[in-house]
Amino acid sequence: MQSDIDRILYHETTILSRLDEMAHTIAKDYEDKELTVVSILNGSFIFMADLLRRIPLPLQIDSWSVSSYHGTKSKGHIEFRQNSIADVIGRHVLILDDILDSGLTLRAIKDRLEAESGAASIRSCVLLRKKLQCEAATVADYIGFEIPDEFVVGYGLDYNERYRNLPYIGVLKEEAIRRHAR
């Protein structure tokens, strides 16, 4: 598995240090507010666990299964895999996602929450934001790292359900992409 990585962008210690900074900012912004965190599965589960353990606030957690990827490319179609959303009426919602590239997934999630939830506010937090030439459909309020427009894995991010358990974020070799293509 390690041999499939072209190079490491962020080591685990760097990621955890950045999460400390993000948690401090989020805790300050949501102090004395009713917070619900909605994590987007499966990619954000490691990010969610490590970040939320650093936020010293009472909060509720919900997870949504949302898909927009097939292989290394976004399908352009957002698939919600559950019908109901958490009861967040009057609460402040923070959406956690692993990566922001086109912004279509995050925009669809925000739109659904705005239309159906009655939340007091809706903000978003992503571990990674790709630097793309085109403008994203939405922006994130909290961003861990900016990365080049390359396909990355590790720390919860996958390629065809592989590599999520790597403790760092790395760029996958082209030969590994070809080998594990579906």
Give a written overview of the molecule.
This protein is α/β, with parallel strands linked by helices. The protein has one domain (13-147): Rossmann fold. Helix content is 25%, strand content 35%. The chain has four helices and nine strands, in the order βαβαβββαββββα. The strands form two sheets. Strands 4-3-2-5-6-7 form a six-stranded mixed sheet, sandwiched between helices. It has a three-stranded antiparallel sheet with strand order 1-9-8. The longest helix has 18 residues, at 12-29. The protein starts with a strand and ends with a helix.
Examine the coordinates and then state which fold CATH places here, giving the name of the CATH topology.
Rossmann fold
- In N-to-C order, the SSE pattern is EHEHEEEHEEEEH
Please report the first level of CATH classification, the CATH class: Alpha Beta
The radius of gyration computed from the alpha-carbon positions, rounded to a whole number of angstroms, is: 16 Å
Distance between the termini: 18 Å
- Please report the number of helical segments: 4
CATH architecture: 3-Layer(aba) Sandwich
Q: Looking at the structure, what is the overall shape?
A: globular
Question: Count the strands?
Answer: 9
Provide the helix percentage: 10-25%
Percentage of residues in strands: 35-45%
Largest sheet: 6 strands, mixed
Low-confidence segments, ≥5 residues, pLDDT <50?
A: none
Pairing-aware structural class of the strands and helices? alpha/beta
User: Largest beta sheet: what is the strand line-up?
Assistant: 4-3-2-5-6-7
Q: What's the number of structural domains?
A: 1
Question: What average pLDDT do the residues reach?
Answer: 89
